[in-house]
UniProtKB/TrEMBL annotation:
Species this protein is from: Kibdelosporangium persicum
Taxonomic classification: Bacteria, Bacillati, Actinomycetota, Actinomycetes, Pseudonocardiales
Subunit details: Interacts with COX5B; this interaction may contribute to localize PYROXD2 to the inner face of the inner mitochondrial membrane.
Protein name per Swiss-Prot or TrEMBL: Pyridine nucleotide-disulfide oxidoreductase domain-containing protein 2
Its biological purpose: Probable oxidoreductase that may play a role as regulator of mitochondrial function.
Amine oxidase domain ranges (all copies): 18-506
InterPro entries assigned to the protein according to its UniProt record, in alphabetical order: Amino_oxidase, FAD/NAD-bd_sf
Superkingdom classification of source: Bacteria
Length: 531
């Protein structure tokens, strides 16, 4: 065993939240060590050739509207460290069963005209809603990406909207997507555009607060698109690692943390899978799911019973199956809108999407799945040889089921059948494919427990002060100097870096000369909340 290494802070996990947290601490002059279980950094933001030579496939996430818009990511100025954003000619197409399609474009008039093909007045409604977005975007994004409660950002929203409009905006945020679409729009196109974007989470059209997710993603798509890092998702990780290294921080891979070391209810370091110890004099930040941190790394004996009882009710999001293809040419979509879009939705109208959501809730694998598809070479020509297409699709399935290789193959075949129906000749283009079910996704990234990509449901009962369990909505834990820095913490999933930045802010606050008062406040809150 090596001598015990001592640093100011240890970060467990090198996903985007972990790397953002490490960068924020390094900016403050702290010595930071990031320990990663996998053989390369990035968590769910990685790229590799898994189908055919020359085809760069994103292993997990791919499009980053919140990454490009996030105030947290913008502050890091990652473009100085090699990050370049690329865009498809159009943002997103939702293809209906009869091959009509609604198009989301960065050009406002193009989106509005697409909506007007379904209902003449819907284009003007969309323009008015986008004007509202432009008024509130900065305050709203700050509210989303900063620690809870977002007092300053909420005040800004109140000033910009006024009390009457703010009250109605808050009501909108609680609505199911179906209800929002029915209240605002006449045509099917706008309604399914909102509902399809809400299903980027695990929320169906009839679930409370799904409207907020659908509205947020469509407004981001309208303004900045669904951009991707040039060269692959892993290039975003590369920029974060390069920036950290320039400030003296380190990432060490192949070092899975097995235990958070505590003394007197304070985190003092970690132990890795090799038995090596690292002492952390100021903080331990964990970019892992909350149940993993508390139950596996800390241990029940160090935690309040009420917190442990709350963790029994922690709800994961649905499992995921992802298929990547190397295609010999562009996809021959019948709907011309889809040929230009980086992101494609297949899955029917709002009722069909609700059926998929209901199937998952009932533990059934949907016969007609909702497919979220990425045309990566259309978006970034560096992803595959000229004239070809690197493409992927993912779909959700119920948790807890066994997916043998044969069963995964049949599901991939079903996915291809759905695409073939809307793009005759698609199967003839397939040079190679790679299939990853829930177990394979977790094997590549242990934080994707049983293929859950969001580290917990996005349903309102597990957001804000209820994420990951009823509490303060902040990254602090009942263990002093231990912070939850992953997507299980507020504000949840997506590559925006906010959970990591919030954890870093908390650690820095604890590290100030006023840190004793901060620790006392946190101890008092935990005693009230968990007994």
């Amino acid at each position: 065993m090596r001598d015990v290494e001592t640093v100011d802070a240890v970060v467990i996990g090198s996903g985007p939240n972990g790397l953002v947290a490490a960068n924020k601490l390094a900016d403050a002059g702290w010595s930071v060590l990031v320990l990663e279980a996998a053989d390369e950094p990035g968590g769910a933001v990685r790229t590799a050739e898994i189908t055919a030579p020359g085809f760069r496939n994103d292993l997990f996430s791919a499009f980053y509207p919140l990454g490009a818009a996030s105030p947290v990511m913008r502050e890091l100025e990652l473009e100085r460290y090699g990050l370049r954003w690329r865009h498809a000619p159009e943002v997103l197409a939702h293809v209906l069963p009869d091959d009509r399609a609604v198009l989301l474009s960065r050009d406002l008039n193009t989106t509005a005209k697409s909506l007007e093909t379904f209902a003449p007045r819907d284009g003007d409604v969309w323009r008015a809603e986008f004007a509202k977005w432009q008024r509130v975007r900065d305050d709203l994004l700050n509210a989303i990406t900063h620690p809870f409660p977002p007092v300053r950002a909420a005040g800004g929203l109140a000033r910009r909207l006024g009390p009457a409009e703010l009250l109605r905006f808050l009501r909108m945020a609680t609505l199911p997507t179906r209800r929002l679409g029915e209240e605002w729009f006449d045509g099917e196109g706008a309604k399914v555009l909102l509902a399809g974007n809400a299903m980027h989470t695990d929320l169906g059209p009839d679930q409370a607060a799904s409207a907020m997710f659908g509205w947020l993603l469509t407004m981001l798509g309208q303004e900045i698109g669904f951009p991707v890092p040039e060269g692959g998702a892993g290039c975003l990780t590369d920029a974060l690692v390069t920036r950290l290294a320039e400030r003296g921080g380190r990432v060490e891979c192949g070092r899975r943390v097995t235990k958070v070391l505590t003394g007197g209810h304070t985190a003092v370091g970690v132990q890795d899978v090799h038995g090596e110890l690292v002492r952390a004099t100021r903080a331990v930040l964990a970019d892992v799911p909350a149940p993993v941190l508390y139950l596996d790394l800390v241990g029940e004996e160090h935690l309040p019973h009420r917190l442990l009882a709350d963790l029994e009710h922690f709800e994961w999001d649905a499992a995921t199956i992802k298929v990547d293809w190397a295609l010999s040419g562009p996809v021959p979509w019948t709907a011309q809108e889809a040929t230009l879009a980086g992101t494609i939705h297949l899955g029917g109208d709002v009722d069909a999407l609700a059926g998929v959501s209901n199937d998952l809730a009932c533990g059934r694998v949907p016969r007609n799945p909702f497919l979220l598809i990425g045309q990566m070479t259309t978006t970034d020509p560096t992803r595959s040889p000229a004239g070809t297409e690197a493409m992927w699709a993912y779909t959700h399935v119920p948790r807890g089921q066994q997916w043998t290789a044969d069963r995964l193959k049949r599901r991939a075949d079903r996915i291809e059948q759905v695409i073939e129906k809307h793009a005759p000749g698609f199967r003839d283009l397939i040079q190679a494919r790679a299939i990853n079910g829930p177990a394979e996704l977790q094997d590549r990234n242990p934080s994707l427990v049983d293929g859950s990509v969001n580290q917990g449901t996005s349903a309102i009962h597990q957001e804000l002060i209820f994420r990951p369990v009823p509490g303060t909505g902040r990254p602090d834990t009942p263990i002093d100097r231990l912070y939850l820095a992953g997507a299980s913490a507020h504000p949840g999933g997506a590559v925006h870096g906010a959970a990591g930045a919030n954890a870093a802010r908390a650690a820095l606050a604890r590290g100030k000369w006023t840190g004793g008062a901060y620790a006392t406040m946190n101890k008092t809150l935990n005693r009230i909340l968990y007994g």
